């Protein structure tokens, strides 16, 4: 029984390591935006980001992960698992749709970098709810 468990565990670790190397897993631990383009479906987003004004001031992680080491890598791990599952099975929406949690992360990043503008726009309307940045700027960052 112990030998079978060890064999199964060894097989699982071997497949996991092979998949990690094949999928360039270590690249996802960096801030290099090219890592996001490892998946062919992200190629257009990467190419659009290269041409955008944000190219000079922000990388993917600046907008799509929360600040802080643990929050950033927890988000990357969560997204990485779901991305790999959906892309491996071919079950993903085309065009891609951002999940509500990731939308909130991105919204907070917009507000942080553009705080003076946000305050000027929302200042007179503080009693109301926040206006979503992407409501008007849906293609900012990587316009397609």
Explain this structure:
The protein is 57% helix and 0% strand. The chain is mostly helical and 144 residues long. The chain folds into two domains: 30 residues; 104 residues, Orthogonal Bundle (Multiheme cytochrome fold). The protein starts with a helix and ends in an 8-residue tail after the last helix.
CATH level 4 superfamily of the largest domain? Di-heme elbow motif domain
Give the SSE string.
Answer: HHHHHHH
- The helix content, as a percent range, equals 55-70%
Distance between the termini: 55 Å
Largest sheet: none
At the fold tier of CATH, the topology name of the largest domain is Multiheme cytochrome fold
Arithmetic mean of pLDDT: 82
The proportion of strand residues reads: under 5%
Report the CATH C-level class of the largest domain: Mainly Alpha
Number of helices: 7
Instruction: Sum up the overall morphology in one term.
Output: elongated
Low confidence ranges: none
Find the structural class using helix and strand composition.
mainly alpha
